Amino acid sequence: MNYYLIAGEPSGDLHGANLMRGLRAADPEARFRFWGGDRMAAEGGADNLAKHYRETSFFGIVQVLRNLRTIRRQMRECRDDVARFAPDALILIDYPGFNMQMAEWAHAQGIRVFYYIAPKVWAWREYRVKAMRRCIDRLFVIFPFERGYFRGKGIEPVFEGNPLVDAIAARCAALPPAEEFRRRHGLDDRPIVALLAGSRRGEIRDNLPLMAALSKRFPDRQFVVAGVSWLDRALYEHYAAGSDIRYVCDETYETLRAAEAAVVTSGTATLETALLGIPEVVVYRTLWFQVKLQP
């Protein structure tokens, strides 16, 4: 079968790669094309990556409005690419602002739509349920309570557990000892506080300065920000200026495993931190009118 997958952020890239691996095990003739990231490209082939999520990650109403033309162009590009590939199934992974529009379009084209990791309509934008009921052929959820919620809305979901549990278990088995992590990055013996400031430029801008201010109040700890490779190190250094925050790249789980606590920007990373058993403070900062505009 031909599968087209769409993921728009790092967590979706992780889950998409694992999903492709499982699909190939069940369907050795599987062919993939996708919007995603490096993990999906490694699993499904770089030539099959139509768009990297670093080009499509717009968060918050201000960024969306500033990039509205780009978003509309990308939506057209995605629809055209899906149509050319003619998949047997379109698999949408989280990323609801974009993916719900793709679901409605694909349904109108007669393409089967599978939604993997349901939009959090139980928290906000519940009006999307009506479109989900109409356009999605199969809905896959990751929290047990979502089964009852969606059944109450006329949707029979599939729940097979949370993919993060398996992903973290696999990664933890290969993590180095905390002492090796400290040695590799030149860290001293002070307790480590991990800083997970987000995976988007706007999140780094809004949250890392607060974390930098916090680090100055606890000189007996060393604060380590877990950066991501698709954002320049200079971005982190700019917003952590004046502090002694240390930087590591693409070693989030390694940083958490070595830490005694974490300060985490709200998102998937909060669940990852909890599953690793690390005490955490969850933060989020944005413009006041963006908060007011959330329905």
Structure description:
- The chain has helices spanning 10-26, 38-44, 60-66, 68-85, 96-108, 128-135, 145-152, 163-172, 178-184, 201-216, 233-239, 252-258, 268-275, 288-293; strands spanning 2-7, 31-36, 49-52, 89-93, 113-116, 138-141, 158-159, 192-196, 222-227, 246-249, 261-265, 280-283.
- The protein is of the alpha/beta class.
- The strands form two sheets. The chain has a seven-stranded parallel sheet, sandwiched between helices.
- Helix 1 packs parallel to helix 2 and helix 9 (178-184) crosses helix 12 (252-258).
Count of strand segments: 12
Q: Calculate the mean pLDDT score and round it.
A: 92
Beta-strand residue fraction: 15-25%
Helices, by number, come to: 14
The stretches of 5 or more residues where confidence is low (pLDDT under 50) are none
Structural class: alpha/beta
- Describe the largest sheet: 7 strands, parallel
Q: Which value, in Å, is the CA radius of gyration?
A: 20 Å
Q: Going across the major beta sheet, what is the strand order?
A: 3-2-1-4-5-6-7
Shape: globular
Provide key terms for this protein:
single chain; alpha/beta; globular
Summarize the structure.
This protein is of the alpha/beta class. It has helices spanning 10-26, 38-44, 60-66, 68-85, 96-108, 128-135, 145-152, 163-172, 178-184, 201-216, 233-239, 252-258, 268-275, 288-293, and strands at residues 2-7, 31-36, 49-52, 89-93, 113-116, 138-141, 158-159, 192-196, 222-227, 246-249, 261-265, 280-283.
